[in-house]
Design brief:
This protein is α/β, with parallel strands linked by helices and 219 residues long. The protein has one domain: Rossmann fold (3-Layer(aba) Sandwich). Helices cover 27% and strands 27% of the residues. It has 6 helices and 9 strands. A hairpin with a 2-residue loop joins strand 8 and strand 9. The longest helix is centred in the N-terminal third of the chain and has 16 residues. It is globular. The model has no long low-confidence stretch (mean pLDDT 94).
Length: 219
Amino acid sequence: MMRHALGTGMTSERTRGRMVTRLRHQGVTDEAVLSAMAAVPRHLFVDEGLSSRAYEDSALPIGFGQTISAPFTVARMLELVGAGDPRVRKVLEVGTGCGYQAVVLAHLVAEVYSVERVGALLEKTRARLWPMRIRNLRLKHTDGFQGLPEAAPFDAIVVAAAAPRIPPALVEQLAPEGKMIIPVGQRVQHLMLVRRVGQEIIEEKLDTANFVPLLADLG
């Protein structure tokens, strides 16, 4: 798991501390997830003009029709799939975006694989992450509906865009006892928690959500 300390200023460190306090008040209880959120400077993952808003609890545009999810959304999804559990060692993220959630995951688990369909966005994110030298994070330009079968199975899958239905390929890539969190729906979206329990797949509908759509065509 990631040990590299990202360069940060004291001001942003205090701001992240306030963000974590807010997350606690909002009901996030997983200490490992909260520590990872505290460690990653979110302002480095948004355009400079939006950096003053980086720690607000809101999604922000990152270009290419995509957004960085609100801090509570990131923490809630990672908590739901058990990313803070030491037994969760390999995670697939669908929708790399600006790379923020992938880096938070890299603080939590041994191996993170992240896929992104928008090639230009992925290249911008690669350039942002390169100086951070995150050795347990691998990125790939591919269709998120198909997941990453060559690296499966995964202990957890986190999908950062809304699918019209749960993609069967992603379910197939869950490890035994694995969990997936995915927003599902079009006009109305809900977070769905999908669990593999023995030979069974259990689906649970949770919070309402508001994500950009999961698309199959590569950009």
